[in-house]
Amino acid sequence: WTFAFVLFLMAAIMNSQGATTRAIMPLGFALGLSPLALIAMYPAVNGFALFPINGPAIAACSLDRSGTTTMGKYLIDNPFQIFGTICAVISVSLGFLIVWLL
């Protein structure tokens, strides 16, 4: 889970799933993590919802005519943060469950 947290945080900082995979996954192999565990942790690279820096989140807030979807005034305060984090945790958990069943 620690490595999945690192993947999530690096994806939020790098704002790219591909770049995170290319930069951090070799570290997982070097640490001796099993390939199945790395595959189970792969959904953690969807951490780009943590910070409000990705284009779709900014566009969604800009296009909302009702005014209910707004970016917060703090760095970690956006409407997609909670749901993105919950989705990543559930996806990694299901990945580990599938690996355990195999």
Summarize the structure.
The protein is mostly helical.
Low-pLDDT runs of 5+ residues are none
Helix content class = 55-70%
| Number of domain modules | 1
Query: Could you tell me the strand content as a percent range?
Result: under 5%
Q: Provide the residue-averaged pLDDT.
A: 81
What is the helix/strand order? Answer: HHHHH
Total number of helices: 5
Structural class: mainly alpha
Q: So what's the overall shape?
A: elongated
Counting DSSP E segments of at least 2 residues, the number of strands comes to 0
Q: Note the main sheet.
A: none
The radius of gyration is 15 Å
Distance between the termini: 19 Å
Explain what you see.
- The protein is 63% helix and 0% strand.
- With 102 residues, it is mainly alpha-helical.
- The protein has one domain (2-101).
- Helix 1 (2-14) packs antiparallel against helix 2 (17-30) and helix 3 runs antiparallel to helix 5 (81-101).
- The model has no long low-confidence stretch (mean pLDDT 81).
